[in-house]
Amino acid sequence: KDYDACIMYCGGLSSFLERFLLCFFCRLHKVPVVLLIRNSALLKVRRNTLMGRFFKFGLNLSNKVVLQGQKWFTHLENLGVSPDKLEVVPSWLSEDWKVSTTPVILESGQLIQFIFIGWLVKDKGILEILEASKALKEEGYRFHFTMVGGGTLFEMSSNFITDHQLGDIVTLTG
After folding, report:
1. What is the mean pLDDT of the chain?
2. Hey, what long-range contacts does 98-101 have (CB within 8 A, 24 or more apart)?
3. CA 92 – CA 137 distance, rounded (Å)
C-alpha cells in the first residue's frame, strides 16, 4: 500500500531513536514525514554535543517538524535543524493564561464529564483515575469518564472497569 505521508508524535527522549529510524525508512520509500515534538527534555540538548548532533541529523530526516512555540523554533534552529523544516503551531492556550482558582459550584445531581486522550501508561496516572472513579461511584457522584487511547495499561484498564462494574461511568474507547 502506498502512503501519502506519515505523522509521528515524539515524546520521551528514547522515542526519538525509534522515530528517527522510521523517518529513515519513510525517506527510503519516498513517504513524507511530519514529526510533532511533545517533550521539553529536548530543550536541554546542546548543539556541540553528541546528543545535539544526533538530534540535528534525526530531525533533518523529516520533511516538517511541528512545534508549539517560538522557543522551540529558536532552539532547534540553533541545533542546526533547517528552519524551512520547522513549523510553529501555538498551543490553544496563550502563555499568559491562568488557571482559575474559583471553585465551580455544581447543581445537585449535575453530571460531570471528563475525558483523557493519550497513551494509557502508569506515568500518566491511569491507575489513579480508575481508583478515583471507583471511589467516586461508591460515594454516589454523578460523572462520566471517557478514556481514549491504547497503551500498556489498556487491557488492565478494561479488566478493572469490568471487574469493578464501572462500565456505566467509564468508557474505554481505544
Report:
1. 85
2. none
3. 32
